[in-house]
Amino acid sequence: MEKSLAIAEVLAYVRQNRTPLAELPPEAIPHDEADAYRVQDALHNLLSPHFGTQVGYKIGCTSAVMQQYLGIDHPCAGGLYMGSVHASGASLRYADYVHVGVECEIAVRLAHDLTSSGEPFTAATVAPAIEAYFPAIEIVDDRYADWRGMDPRALIADDFFAAGCVLGKGVAPGNAPDLLSVTGRAVVNGVEIGRGTGADVLGHPHHALAWLANHLAAQGKTLRAGEFVLTGSLVQTAWLNAGDEVWMELSGLGSVAVDFKA
Which residues belong to any copy of the Fumarylacetoacetase-like C-terminal domain (predicted)? Predict the structure, then answer.
């Protein structure tokens, strides 16, 4: 636990001071993914006083385009904090990030806890827990001198690039389209830079939610009512410049916008 806290303190310093992190020395890299998530837990405790209580999770690497881009062939989770969840139309400071990027996502908010019964969660068993779907922009931050040289275990420990999100208006499940047919378009400064569909997210965003519920259950944790989950990007990450304006549309769910002022 002492090692986990020591690594978490380094990552928390980087997050709070926006200092690019060079590759961690071998002795500071978590032993395995389970160890990486223990460091992440310690990091959440250190960051909550600064960024607000944890209000949910992001899931990364749920689409082929992102798995190929990051070179990681399985989903990874990170935390979301109250102070980094914004409403559509937000204007954020570019300087508040090391190198900010955006991703196009389908988010969900839970109506009730997903308590483990001992059986694995499936797409079918998590669906009734969804209170609403949201068009979402995940905000990610490249907090590293060279992220391609970072060990994936270190990326997981550091919330897997998570830096918040921007949410559009919620859509009740009864009013939502078939998520497989939802097309997401990512537009930066009026130019479309990527598109994908709900089917790209592990075959269906509900599969991503089930993965997260099982991942947390294995740690003795539970997804709680009211928490948000970003189910994974439909497009490759777009890294931004100061002054960029971002607009994303998810057909049948609506649109969401944010700009990053200089």
Answer: 85-257
Domain around 187: 2-261
**Mean per-residue pLDDT of the chain:** 94
Residues whose CB falls within 8 Å of the CB of residue 94, separated by 6 or more in sequence, listed in order: 100, 240, 241, 242, 243, 244, 260, 261, 262
Q: Would the pLDDT of 150 be above 90?
A: no
Spatial distance between the Cα atoms of 215 and 226, rounded to a whole number of angstroms: 19
- CATH code at position 83: 3.90.850.10
* Number of neighbouring beta carbons within 10 Å of residue 239: 13
Q: Give tens-digit pLDDT for 204-219.
A: 999 999 999 999 999 9
pTM beyond cutoff 0.70? yes
User: What distance in Å separates the CA atoms of residue 165 and residue 158, rounded to the nearest whole number?
Assistant: 16
Helices and strands in the chain: count of H runs, count of E runs:
6, 13
> From CA 161, how far away is CA 146, in angstroms rounded?
13
Task: Say yes or no to pLDDT of 148 above 90.
Answer: no
First and final CA of the chain: distance in angstroms?
40
